[in-house]
Specification:
By secondary structure, this protein is mostly beta strands. The protein has strands at 4-7, 10-13, 18-24, 34-39, 46-51, 58-60, 68-73, 78-83, 92-99, 115-118, 122-127.
Length: 128
């Protein structure tokens, strides 16, 4: 069972940037696509971005496309989410997660049930 630990959240003004990190335990990190999700108060958890096991393919939800960049360093067992041009509506707890099936980058990677390991989350607050 992999353990995921997010960091890098905080308070930032609108238009600012933050970089989230997610450190994973386990030697098979490089076999799995990794995703970022977020959950705002009173709302359901939603997909933000996903990256394939090699890092060659990515996918983003429309609202962050062009502003956020997901990346990974398999040598460090870490996945990142660079967030630029932040907006107040980006305020949420951000979670990283591991895709359930190795070497899978199918459409299920945008759905919560495609993931089987989750971090504890890191708070991102964007002030207007």
């Amino acid at each position: 069972q992999v353990q995921l630990v997010e960091s890098g959240g905080g308070l930032v003004q609108a238009g600012g940037s933050l970089r989230l990190s997610c450190a994973a335990s386990g030697s098979t990190f490089s076999n799995y696509a990794m995703g970022w999700f977020r959950q705002a108060p009173g709302k359901e958890r939603e997909f933000v971005a996903v990256i394939s096991w090699s890092g060659r393919r990515t996918n983003y939800t429309d609202s962050v496309n062009g502003r956020f960049t997901i990346s990974r360093d398999n040598a460090k067992n870490t996945v990142y989410l660079q967030m630029n041009s932040l907006k107040p509506e980006d305020t949420a707890v951000y979670y990283c997660a591991k895709v359930r099936t190795p070497f899978d980058f199918s459409r299920i990677s945008v759905r919560l049930d495609g993931y089987d390991s989750w971090g504890q989350g890191t708070q991102v607050t964007v002030s207007s």
